[in-house]
Design a protein that fits this description.
Length: 103
């Protein structure tokens, strides 16, 4: 009985926790130029370390927790654009508008 309860508890606890740890599989950013679909998990496999993008640490939350909220921080849409494009220039990801924006 104890094991059964433990299993029930685990099945309730594990999925949201691992989601919280790994983040979403994809993130969609609506923009005036159409939807940008960011393949988050695929990028995790490509990039290796989380802090390349989550430069203050994953536990600090989404970019928008600070950018545009804390004083002196550039807006989220500006830092995202910069981070996405800078890396793509180095690592040969898409850099043309339509490579990311899907009008
Ligand atoms: C190529 C860049 C990049 C890499 C590498 C990356 N992430 Fe992310 N991650 C993002 C972006 C962009 C978002 C969306 C942030 C937003 O909505 O403001 C995000 C969102 C998240 C979220 C959700 C945050 C929230 O509160 O909404 C979690 C959790 C997360 N990532 C965890 C990770 C972990 C763990 C790793 C490493 C295994 C990782 N990420 C690697 C770019 C990245
Ligand atoms: C805990 C707060 C915090 C979070 C969360 C955060 N940032 Fe930042 N970010 C800052 C601060 C403060 C600066 C300005 C000082 C600095 O360069 O470190 C900054 C600077 C930057 C810069 C450099 C801007 C420039 O013009 O040089 C980029 C790019 C950036 N952040 C991207 C991101 C992305 C992408 C995310 C989400 C994946 C994110 N940040 C999450 C606080 C945060
Ligand atoms: C640290 C490096 C890095 C960052 C940051 C990064 N990317 Fe990428 N991205 C890549 C690489 C590497 C590729 C794959 C290039 C190839 O092999 O075709 C890629 C491919 C893509 C593709 C092509 C479709 C796919 O997923 O395979 C899209 C769209 C894309 N990235 C969007 C984004 C967006 C939007 C951001 C910012 C939120 C971003 N990327 C940030 C490295 C990065
Ligand atoms: C590597 C991916 C990538 C490329 C290439 C890219 N963008 Fe973006 N763009 C984004 C992301 C991600 C956002 C959303 C940021 C947010 O909402 O926080 C964005 C946001 C924007 C916004 C702000 C949207 C709004 O509604 O305020 C404009 C305008 C824009 N992009 C135009 C362009 C143009 C023009 C080009 C080509 C010169 C381009 N982008 C190329 C990823 C990209």
């Amino acid at each position: 009985m104890r094991w059964f309860l433990l299993l029930v508890l685990l099945s309730l606890i594990v999925p949201p926790e691992s989601y919280a740890l790994e983040g979403p599989q994809e993130v969609e950013f609506p923009s005036r130029w159409g939807m940008v679909t960011f393949t988050h998990h695929r990028h995790q496999q490509r990039v290796g370390t989380c802090v390349v993008c989550h430069h203050q640490g994953v536990e600090m939350g989404a970019c928008g927790a600070c950018h545009g909220v804390l004083p002196m921080t550039p807006l989220r849409k500006d830092v995202l654009h910069k981070q996405c494009k800078d890396c793509h220039r180095d690592k040969r990801g898409p850099t043309d508008c339509a490579g990311c924006h899907n009008p």
